Amino acid sequence: MRLGLKLLQERAKSGSFWWPYISNLPETYSVPIFFPGEDIKNLQYAPLLYQVVAGTQIKQDEPLVLNYGCLNNDFFLLDYGFVVPSNPYDCIELKYDGALLDAASMAAGVSSPNFSSPAPWQQQILSQLNLDGEAPLLKVSLGGPELVEDRLLAALRVLLADDMEMVKHDLSTLKLLSVEAPLGISNEVSALRTVIALCVIALGHFPTKIMEDESILKQRVSVSTELAVQFRIQKKSTIIDVMRDLTRRVKLLLSKESVSA
């Protein structure tokens, strides 16, 4: 998937290093709608043959809606050739990296981050989250229904805890964004601010801003360039939506802290 998205991005560039390879790829493809009867007969005894049957009576000229499933725009673009605006299942993927989290937390004003050098008890929890150990799964996501992937959220809460005694909840609780500040308001604010800073870093890796992308779409561009720019806009919009939601949560937590104080 990453190679496909990389080539799509490179195709929109002029003078790309990858252009000799891209120019040899087919520009269009077609899917046959009707198959000859002989071909169908040859398939009727095939072990992997499926028959699609409508579950209800369909009237003539009645519009049909296709349900592609709960997919992010990466799959929609690569598999179907389009992008869904404001896709609630769209997300961005990041690599869980201690140095990156240290930089994000410091940018967010979080004091004494120790993501690069967790304590032994914290490492043990990270292993349970499959973010440490022999074969960790380091790909985490932001956006979509979860907003913040549960493993990343739990890891941030644990790594920003002062001591092991603070972590009295099981991992299933620490993974839930809906559980408000399970390790205290200060811990939660630091965790959410770190994610917001991660979003800022992710936005900084895009070569353009949304307004620039929108101006590109107003020009005469190829279909592939239009799709690439639309895809880029939606990814940025997803990141911004995450930032807005988490910023709202931080303000609400701080207001509760000031009232209790």
What does this structure look like?
One of its GO terms (biological process) is methylation. By secondary structure, the chain is mainly α. It has 2 domains: 2-80, no CATH class; 91-260, Alpha-Beta Complex (set domain protein methyltransferase, domain 2), CATH 3.90.1420.10. It is 49% helix and 5% strand. It has a 3-stranded antiparallel β-sheet with strand order 1-2-3. α5 packs across α9 (185-204), α9 runs antiparallel to α11 (223-260) and α10 runs antiparallel to α11. The longest helix has 38 residues, at 223-260. The radius of gyration is 24 Å and the shape is globular.
A few lines on this structure:
Residues 117-237 form the Rubisco LSMT substrate-binding domain. This protein has eleven helices and three strands, in the order ααααβααββααααα. With 261 residues, it is mainly α.
Count of runs of 4 or more consecutive helical residues: 11
Q: Stretches where pLDDT falls below 50 for ≥5 residues?
A: none
In the CATH scheme, the class of the largest domain would be Alpha Beta
CATH architecture of the largest domain: Alpha-Beta Complex
* Beta-strand content bin: under 5%
Radius of gyration: 24 Å
What average pLDDT do the residues reach? 87
Number of domains: 2
How many E-type strands? 3
Order of helices and strands: HHHHEHHEEHHHHH
Quote the CATH topology of the largest domain. set domain protein methyltransferase, domain 2
Helix content: 40-55%
